[in-house]
């Protein structure tokens, strides 16, 4: 306790750090206020009654939790920062394919500034398209009465307002990154998830009779997920590297390769690819085409590939896991270049003990990466589908039945994001404190 108190005193006495923390809290407070600003021309009463009706919208509760209540109010920030994240990922992927973008990535701050500018420009059209999709999805999930989708002007205006809200969040996130503490976009997502967890926890406790048992069960689930997330985020494989000069050993070091080399990107991609057929089927059933085969396919997709449902089909879960593992391998191969690492080691006169420099070192690093990708992908998939796994275990389902239902308050991916953001905040605070000591002396 003394160590914690001393650390807290260091933080409070650091005026520059307190300014950053205060600015971050101010932006987060403004963001939470925007959650209660609804989009015009939306029937909020119908929306709210549909949000509370689990029969009308099986997967709505999960989306509400992820967006921290922005969806239940259909606020202007309802689509969040996902268009900006998608745009960022697109340019990361294109950077390994298009030579011009690859050159920009290697130009340091100037090149990264240009790529950031391109990312912002792409965010707007992506947000508008996603806003149109959100209009039809929300209407379909809530019975078709919340938004007048028959009026193209209403649809476009709603999508435009959602786009404006997304761009405001993008600006807020960049301001936090520049003047606040930690990564701004991650913090906005963090705030949404934590707010959603609190709302979900309150609902679960208010509807349950065995309050103590429900709390213990929820704490146990969150604790296990947190420990697993910490293990995945902190684990790494250390490759020894020896540097020589004139045939003599000059220095030995470690090349750390994390168990999680690509973060949450695979689960974001997997969710997008798994949900895309379902979103398309929603649009098809909305317009009711005369093609019977097309309607039959759309109905089959809604029945078997609805990953947003609280009880999705096995096929949707299988595809979800396959995509998570597959994108882990794909994104790692794009962003992590074993050949470049091996070349850098060789140019500095280094080698891995027992491995020849050059191609053998490249193959060795690549083999380790593929091994880590397999375990990271499977671990990430397990965390992502943990609610479905718990539902399949008879012992757990018996406990859940005794409690009046499965009191899961957070998605596994949400736990990973929370753990990652908290770890990043602690690292940034520690860095600022260390820098303050250096400047003092």
Give me the count of strands.
3
Helical proportion, percent range: over 70%
Q: How much β-strand is present in the residues?
A: 5-15%
Per the CATH scheme, the topology name of one domain is Preprotein translocase SecY subunit
Largest sheet: 3 strands, antiparallel
Structural features, described:
- The protein has 441 residues and is mostly helical.
- It has a domain at 14-207: SecY subunit domain (Preprotein translocase SecY subunit, Orthogonal Bundle), CATH 1.10.3370.
- The chain is built from 18 helices and three strands.
- It has helices spanning 2-13, 15-34, 44-52, 60-66, 82-94, 99-105, 109-141, 152-179, 184-207, 211-234, 265-287, 292-304, 314-335, 338-347, 359-384, 386-391, 394-403, 412-440, and strands at residues 236-245, 248-258, 350-351.
- Strands 2-1-3 form a three-stranded antiparallel sheet.
- The longest helix has 33 residues, at 109-141.
- It is globular.
- Mean pLDDT is 76; it is low at 50-62.
For this entry, give a set of tags.
single chain; 441 residues; mainly alpha; Preprotein translocase SecY subunit; 3-stranded antiparallel beta sheet; 18 helices; globular
What's this entry about, in short?
With 441 residues, the chain is mainly alpha-helical. The chain has helices at residues 2-13, 15-34, 44-52, 60-66, 82-94, 99-105, 109-141, 152-179, 184-207, 211-234, 265-287, 292-304, 314-335, 338-347, 359-384, 386-391, 394-403, 412-440; strands spanning 236-245, 248-258, 350-351.
